[in-house]
Amino acid sequence: MSNVDALNRDFARYDQVTKNHTYRLAEHASDEFDDDYVIAALDFGRFLNGNATDKAIFVEEFGAAIQDIGFTVLTGHGVDTQLYDDMHELVIELFESLFLDEKMRFRAQRQGSVNQGYFPIEETSDIHPDQVEGWVWCRRAFQMEQERSTKFRVEDFWPKEKFERECRRLALSHETLFKPIAQAMLQSLGCDPHLYDDKLTNTNFGLRLNYYPVLNPEQERSGAGRLLGHEDVDLFTLLPAPREAGLQVWNHSSRKWIRLHAPEGSMIINTGDYMQRISNDRLPSTTHRVGNAAGGLHSSTPRVSFPMAVYVWENEILDVLPGLGKPKYKPVKAINFHTRSTAKFYGDDYAVES
Fold it and tell me: Domain containing 284 — which CATH number?
């Protein structure tokens, strides 16, 4: 049941990797913020286009940042930032131009591992009344080259064809970064950087469009968060820097929250549960949430974000990478791992056991 005072420990039974810290899911007046910690901003172009020395230096800095807090900010990623401007406007159009009954035709349901479709405001999960509307599409919802058991129809997934077309531009642009980002992470661990190249070839992903409407005084007083504190379930997430502030990251060392507002055009990267598991806890799945923006902008300006979660296909096995010590976790099929973890959001019957 939705509860604005819920703690993450209330749902610890669903965790598939070690998470020992305790935090309130929604922002609260008692929360402390770490204003001194700076999340590293790194030029990814050094890895994409640099020589061996450039790449080695980037990997060292990137690995240090990810191992420390699970988050970093990348510039020089090579994605045309005009695409991000276009997506910002597209998200607003999607959520503001459609009536609720049009959106509800695509109410989220499980597709493989991913809960794909529309999430009404206050119904992002069963455990907290978030002040956000969301819409998720996994690879199956896009006109991409891949094997399909049934004929693909845009209208089965999208209210208008233009939304698929424009979102596909973003998905394809980000997909070119899946392998390089994974390679840099694996190399930072001392592993073969190409261990996941095959798994990340035409792999599954989840593109999520988030629309945070302006909060009225009653919503502010309710104590509900804009997006509950959580850890991503994926390998890693690519988040183009939102224009509006509000993203908060948990610092395990200080046990305080960090307000993260990345430079325009940059890309925020964070590791998820898949990655924590295969890295034997070396790369943490870091807690984050969306709270109210400083200066009260949440009362006058809607917030938009469009993160892209990188998964592997359901039948892939998540196993601790070689060379990282005695495995803390047993091999597990991705669909079992994913759905057991996310059952905390969608109910116990969401978990797949096979």
Answer: 2.60.120.330
Q: Where are the alpha helices (DSSP H) in 189-278?
A: 217-222, 273-278
Give the structural domain span for 298. 8-350
pTM equals 0.95
Residue 201 vs residues 74, 167, 243, 310: alpha-carbon distances, Å = 22, 19, 31, 11
Question: CA-CA distance, 142 to 6, in Å (whole number)?
Answer: 36
- Identify whether 3 is part of a domain: no
Task: Say if 2 falls within a structural domain.
Answer: no
Q: What is the enclosing helix (H) or strand (E) of 104?
A: helix 100-104
* Residue 271 contacts residue 288 (beta carbons within 8 Å): no
CA angle (343, 346, 349) in 5-degree steps: 60
pLDDT of residue 226: 87
* Side-by-side strand order, sheet with 288-290: 227-230, 288-290, 247-251, 256-259
Residues whose CB is less than 8 angstroms from the CB of residue 292 and which lie 6 or more positions away in sequence, other chains included: 27, 215, 220, 226, 246, 298
DSSP-derived pairing of the beta strands 41-43 and 71-75? parallel
Q: Which of 55, 61, 121, 79 is nearest to 238 (CA)?
A: 79
Q: Where are the beta strands (DSSP E) in 51-177?
A: 71-75, 109-111, 114-119, 133-138
Which residue reads 């870091």 in tokens? Answer: 286
Q: Is the dihedral of CA 214, 300, 230, 182 positive or negative?
A: positive
Three-state secondary structure call for residue 299: helix
Does some domain include residue 1?
Answer: no
- The gap between the terminal CA atoms of the chain, to the nearest Å, is 27
Mean pLDDT by 10 residues, the chain (354 residues): 77 94 88 93 98 97 97 98 98 97 97 96 86 96 70 91 97 98 98 98 97 83 82 98 95 93 96 98 96 69 95 97 97 98 95 89
Asked whether residue 89 is assigned to any structural domain, the reply reads: yes
